[in-house]
Amino acid sequence: MKRVVWMLVLLLSVSLSVHALSWAYAFVVLDGRVYEVTDIMVLEADLGDVVGEVETLADDMTGDYYGDASNMYPIGTEYRQVEGESVEDVLAVEDGTEWKRAEFVHEAPFDSRNHLDVIAYAAIGLGIAVFLGTRLRKRG
Q: Per-residue DSSP letters for 58-127?
């Protein structure tokens, strides 16, 4: 009987709660720059070239994100230049059948996954240097 009581107390003391973040605003990231998506519509006539798209999603549990990410828009959502505006300041973000203005707010936090290509090339270069170094020592 004591075991049953202790097991019941143990089970009741363990809480299984799930928490998700509530984002302050919708954002997209392009080349390490975070843009807040506003409710201001961008006319089709003001759209320029496609400059990117959402490639990853922000994690709703931790708030972490990397690469060209978004917290509200699905992967594949396009970003376009707004005529007369610098891409460093303003983007147009596809929102269904319309385009919304996204304004630069801050640089994205550092994440090593943003630099995997540099890390990979450095590792390959280092591997080649070590290989060539050992080959030259054997000959000399």
A: --TTT----SSEESSSPTT-EEEEETTS-TTTEEEEEETTEEEEEEEEEEPPP-GGGGHHHHHHHHHHHH
**Per-residue pLDDT for the chain (140 aa), expressed as one digit of tens each?**
677 666 766 666 665 555 555 778 889 999 889 999 999 999 999 999 999 999 988 887 777 777 888 999 999 999 999 999 999 999 999 998 899 999 999 887 665 555 556 677 777 888 888 888 888 888 76
- pTM reported for the whole predicted model: 0.65
